[in-house]
Amino acid sequence: MYAKTAEPEALRFKGKTQLGIHQSVVWNPQLALYLVVTGKTITVNRQTDNQRVATIVLKDAEQAIAYQWDRDTGKRFAVFYRNGIARIYDCTTAGGQLQKVVNIVETPALHPGTQTQNAALSSAVWATVAWDRFPDTYAVLNVDVAALMPDMVRIVRDSKQMSMAPMGPWGPDLSHPEASVILSHSQEDRCYLLTLDDLVTVRFSSKIDRMCKILPPKYKHGPFVGVARDGTLEHIRLQFTEVPLMRELVKCSGYVRFLCEYIIDHILVCKSDLIDPFAQLLARLKAAYGGSDLYTQLCEVLVSGCVDPALEDWLCNSVGDKNFKRWKQLSSRMCGDLNNVLTLAIVPACERLILACERLQGIHKSLKLQKLKESGEFDPTKLSSPEIDVFLHECQEMLADTLRLVEYVNADAVLHAIFEEWFFDIVMECVDEDYKRKPDAEKKYNSNNRPVQLEQYLKLCWTSSSSSSYGIADHGLNALENRARDRLVTCASKLDRLYTVPWVLELVQVTRSGATEPHIQVWDAIVDEMNADCVFVASQIIGHAADHANTSSSSTIVSVARRCAPNNNNNTATSVEMVWELVPDSSEPPSPPSSLSSSPAPAVDATFITSHDDGSPALVVLHDRDTLTTLAIHRSSLVPTHFTLTGSSQRLRQGTTPLFTTVAATSLHSCASSALLSVHSTSAMAVYEMSCDQHRCGGGRA
């Protein structure tokens, strides 16, 4: 049925605001705030007075594809980028600080030997899902030993020193069932990317070519719904949220990767902040020596006490008191801080890695036991995961190497202290002719095998051919870094590739429904509040189909369809569709010719909003440049799956004055969970709210 009505206005005008040139507005579902996207900046504005409360400068603004508020609290918002990055900001802090960066695409550091997969995201949605939890009776068996250990530390650095601070708990709190999920779609690759708590990312195929939007789930285990521009729907059910062990698997796998990164990062900090500055100073001092062989001359001083003229010149002019103090500061800092990082950061991380491997081993066995039970067979040989045994062995070797390195560092620190005192006497004797050694200095240097130890230190650090900056410690750090990169990261990636990702994908169900309809163009979609498996889809029929041949050539046909996914009882998707004809309103004169053409124009944009009364959706269509038509959806009291449409139209005016006189309205923005609607031109925004009696408005039935 096609009808045109002149019923009471369904939308109440609230005000108009000049925003300047902007690209998008995103309304907050919980708080009286909204985002304004303007080029390279995002501003957070108050809804009550339109005052700006925060401004964020975007990085790579041309890559941004979507913006979304946190649906649960409304205190955070996310910016999604085409290259697979999501940045989450906290609007409760001054200026809207960056809270977190989520890499949706796997990083190559954790997947050695593989190329980075292109993201090319076209749409994304951020939602919270709920996991099932173990019964309380199992709580006594589910003990995480690593959580009972003292907190890990993080390095706090400045230009003068390095210190340690508590890092706090890591990862999601499993005592809360909620988990953060980002589901994105790549139009180029025709695939979805699913990120769970920023711990694991999985890819799975999609049949949708051009995505309109992804709808988040409405209830605990509800599906995500991908809505294509051609009307195709894909329901994505995350069945792994119904398996508590899967959450343990995801968190434990993410914890293993985090510890591998933690170890590598701290080794790199030791090299860049402790080893390298000392090595650079030592290299400059050795390069400044103009004699034959620095090592030989220092050994000669050690044996006979005679100082060669070239060595004396080097000690006076190149080393001197200033460079000696700098050398002493860097060496003392290196010895002390290196030992602290090894004992307080890397050793505890290796211990936690061993515990995480053992826990992961138990999780794997439990999941495999469930699979064997479902298949009705039991084979003990299928319970083990040999890759975890290899990983556990590598973690144990890493811990043993670290403890050996700590022992070597402590021994080198003692030797370094002896050399430092002896070297100070040699330098000062050359710099200050009045300097006198302590009375017991010679006796101390020649006792307890000290000359041999000093000669070993000289050979290790002061020869022209020595590439090592700090002897065994430098070599040991390189060995730890290589083991962490080549062994630990490789094993962790292999576990993800063979077990974690495939097991997650086994429990991701994608159901496709709705035939491709080339003659329609989808505008918007919203989940049915009465049945989360059903979606209302609004679209425009492009080119009147045969059954609409009696329509006016100047009108626009709007389709509102309620489409439901196939279920276990019925494998066929159900769909109920109503259509509405938008006919230009000739009862009022058109806008002035100088500003807007008076000729009829097709629909420009459409969006769903929600009624205050009962939460029923309504579709608002912007057409004929300055007309809003509101199509309210009424459910049948006899057949719940059926519905009817009533419509009312109104002009974009305040009283008799047009709201947009120079530039026509071009877009609509709304929050699907509220009754607010904003109409936008390139620089202005008019805000409307659905009237409380909207569903009692009259109109033709469809």
Q: In the CATH classification, which architecture of the largest domain applies?
A: 7 Propeller
Helix content: 25-40%
CATH superfamily of the largest domain: YVTN repeat-like/Quinoprotein amine dehydrogenase
CATH fold node name of the largest domain: Methylamine Dehydrogenase, Chain H
Low-confidence stretches: 1-6, 107-116, 590-600, 694-702
Count of extended strands: 32
| Tally of separate helices | 8
The radius of gyration is: 35 Å
Which term fits the overall shape? elongated
CATH class of the largest domain: Mainly Beta
Distance between the termini: 5 Å
For the report, how would you describe the main beta sheet? 4 strands, antiparallel
Mean pLDDT, all residues: 82
Sheet/helix structural class: alpha+beta
**Domains (count):** 2
Note the beta-strand portion.
25-35%
What strand order characterises the main sheet? 1-32-31-30
